[in-house]
User: Fold these one by one.
Assistant:
Number 1:
Amino acid sequence: MSMLLGDRVVEFLSANKIVFGLGAVSTLAEEVKALGGTKVQVISDRILVEQDVIRPVLASLEQASIPYVVFDEVLPDAPVSMILKALNQYESEGCDLVIGFGGGSPMDTAKAVSITATNGTNLEELMGFHAVKKRGAPKITIPTTNAAGADVGFAIVFVTDEETHEHGLIACRQAMPDVVINDPMLTVSMPRSVTADTGIDVLVTGIEALASKQATPFSDLYAEKVISICAAYLPRVCAKGSDIEGRYHMALAATMSGLAYMSSMLGAVHGLSYPIAGACNLTHGRSMAPLLPNVMRFNAPGNPEAYARTAELMGYDTEGLTILEAAELAAEAVEALLDTIDVSYRLQDYGVQEGDIDKLAEEGMASMEELGDAFLTPNPRDMTLDDIKRILQEAFKSIYI
């Protein structure tokens, strides 16, 4: 929760235009023309192409006689080699606008193609915050999952080393899309596991944005709504994927979470999750499940008001509790939600052995320090390597000592 002190200046960032609602994808051709696109590259993955989930996108382009090519080789956590292959198609086909259609990886790949088309192909030189100098090629993102803020966000996450699964991050205004088209109907085909995993990502983003030491009035506005939506609707869409009302609200929360984190940044749940995702071959969202309640308990003394507010937003009565008791209730609320959607918050259920904890902690510390402005600085409480080891040990046992 935000506290504006002295001469602190805050920012609010957003895509230039967000088109939201049932059937919104039908406006695609109109948006392409408004951006001056004459030939479009559509970046997606093979499953969305083979199952024809991509059909509304292609139909809109075809009806408007807009030429396009499709790149459907995107993998989860896109490696550099794949991004450069997509860029080669974009340039060789003479495209002048790129569309990212799918989950976080297709949208991040489209953003990466956009900025490398104008800033050169050395992604390592572009890594970090605000290293990109030139505006990218025009780009549109169209999510088919609830990847938190990937549609509106200024971040591009990719794999820099395919053997070690080491991740890289580019964060800059130039990565933000020109237009976001968020059509909740496109998320109905998500399998239950993807629904749960991306929903966890949205929930974590909302909680970390609210608790961040860099929270602002802008991020609070969206973060609170994100948390309350996830509490109400994530169990519903996991129980029944065809629940259109639930899909509508979760799609809205996913976009809102991006608007929140760009003003507040995130915290240790995100920062510590990448080594776990790589070691256990987990999605980004699932890798955060065993971290979330334990990091919340650790962080509670640093911002008890935010975690107490989280408990309230998740529908829990905090009347009569001390502020720290209410903060603890937030962690219990998260565990109850994860139980409801059948997602484990025990590291051992994902193949982690107790002997792995020291290595994961060291890798997590390195991840936190490498991107300190994104994770370590905004985290409500300072962390040492021993703190991280303890958090992982508690996540392994799922008991807070």
Number 2:
Amino acid sequence: MKTRIALAAAFAALAVAGGAHAQSKKPVNIFIWNDYLGETTLADFTKATGFQTKVDLYDSLELLEQKVLVGKSGYDVIVPTAEPTLSRMIQAKVLAPLDKAKIPNLKNVDPAMLKLVETSDPGNKFAVPYLGGTVGIGIVPEKIKAVAPDVPLDSWDLIFKPEVAKKVSACGITLMDSAIDVIPSVLNYLGLDPNSEKKEDLDKAEKALMAVRPYIKQFVTGQNINLLAAGDACVVMAYNGDVNQATSRAKEANASHTVQYVAPKEGVQVWWDTLAVPADAPNKEGAHAFINFVLDPVNIAGITNFVKYANAVPASLEHVDPEVKANPAIFLPETAKVKLFSLKAVKQSTDRARTRVWTKVKTGK
């Protein structure tokens, strides 16, 4: 797998490539998570449709919201997570309804996934499922065993139990820089409703996080892949696909350590990212062409093979690499006994309360 730098260079090159046919059309401006497209997705799209592409990367949902909610972002395709970002954007009326007649490949999407996303997007009017996964822990087992040989490797205790976190902190604990992801996971770990809006429950989550705050090395999301691949942290709260990419990079670099994904036994959040079009997108035609292209089974399989995230197109599985398809860290088996939960929309007052908790945790005071 190529490095993120090489992939970014490829994005830049594609912005000026594509020939005369591509140059006659407006480019499609895409705002997306880092490491979230296939190795040849953009080149294949340009070749198939004549549309050039320009890609900007973000590493937090907060940044995506800031850009789009202000308006005139210049983006044609964005990738909001169903909850809470997609539902917020729909409420704020900053998304354009999809012209489904221009997305014939929508027929390929799993109806169950459409129904799942429909809780955020009634009628599936504004978005389609793209890639999905879980929020768990990336570990470097050799480094953990070197400093804490007796700790369990299948539990959120690695991060959220003070006496365990204290031991493991010697090799580095990293928490996601995302109140949206961390607080529900802590609530679930405590045996509470992960979507709870009760003040007493948020107080308990804050107390739990403050108890382990001295042992958290840093708060990052976008850098998790590199941290794990380089072995600069041994316990990292992360998206499963980021851990899978880190696993591949460590192997390619012949690292002396291994990287594994753990879906903790106490339960993990399941999420779906979606493809949507801002209401003021300058190139809605190109946006619909891109979404339709991505929903082709062969094209979305290429993305899954590269980024190691599950997709919502069942027909793609015959084109997914066997080792990817069989990887339980990508496609959780039906026999998995891990508790799964998803996020639900919460009141603005709850969002503000979560933000206050998160600010206190990050500052440590």
Number 3:
Amino acid sequence: MKTWAEESFFYHIYPLGLTNAPKHNDFHSTPVPRLDQLHGWLDHIQWLDADAIYLGPVFESTAHGYDTVDYFHVDRRLGMDETLAAFADEVHRRGMRLVLDGIFNHVGRNFWAFHDLRQKGEASSYKDWFHNLRFGETSPYGDPFNYEGWDGYYDLVKLNLRNPAVVEHLLQAVTSWIVRFHIDGLRLDAADVVDMDFLRTLSAHCRALRPNFWLMGEVVHGDYNLWANPQTLDSVTNYQCSRALWNSHNDHNYFEIAYGLKRQSGEIGIYKDLILYNFLDNHDVDRVASAIKEPCHLYPTHILLFTMPGIPSIYYGSEWGVTGAREHQSDATLRPALNINQISQDPPQPDLAPAIQRLAALRRGSAALKHGNYREVLVQNEQFAFLRQADGEEILVCVNSTDQPVEIQCQLDGRWEDLLNPGDIFQAQDGTLHLTLPACWGRVLRRA
């Protein structure tokens, strides 16, 4: 079944970073409506032709947002519940969709139920709320018990999602988000380690409230079919192709992304029936402008992002070539404060955002690029071409990562019009289509 997200282009914002919120919550300061800054970004987001916003963690937390303290109220560093409601209303008034982060695998050590456990020990009514809790041991923080943290991080306490009381608490929170903020979906943090029964329960609960509610999971490793299916989630993060897009340009080796796309979406692709969430960077990985060694490669990389099967997403600031690489034990450089007026006036890559706008508009007007099947046409170290077909439309995508124009030949017939470079038309001769690909750019051709 098609979802609204399949038609969409996402703009991803990490609000605690963008708004320059304090790094740590003191839990007593008067709320500051920093989320109001996001209103100033909406014209730009719509100019890019994005029509869905994925808003990173917004609920009360200790530090980075993924250490939740209260699922029912907005983080005071970002404002009040009314601040988020006003932003959500404006997003929807503009005809856009809003997706929030759902962090259900773990909570922060200041989460109210864990606080009760730390105070009362075995007498706490919430001792069964946490996964693999063990009295008689000592935690790395000196608690008279031990517990499981996410990926070894003990400031992220894993919830016991087999406890009906925990599940009910989380479902009540989600219901409140849908009712109060009219959200259109959730991105589930650390979905690859969330209990599958909980995912099924959450899916049924959300669809009962809103039949077109969209659920996307953060999955770094594993078989995407385990998480994206009719019983659980609609989509997952396509980390496999994200890395392949970087590597194919850095290593001058389009065979890597070609292999990934054929494996996923080809005629016998293992994910050909899934609509994956595609991205070049996000709040957890190096900015694409830092990950890609040669700046000119940002352009063919984005052509691929907007023409390959799946849903494209841009991380705030990356449309201007903002850089940022992970530092040891810190993601702060990936999540900078940005002033929309300053960065848009003097961006590191001034031609990139207009290119993304063109690609987004092109995808929006093409059924083949949004829904079409996938067939590889040509793969060379620095040139790559594939076909997308749907609803009687046929699109040929070609990219060139060299700094010189290159001639290629595709075994295709017919007349082809270039949508990316208007006015360029090519006619095949004797079953061969001869094309000149511009340097560090490409062509997106529709069969006439």
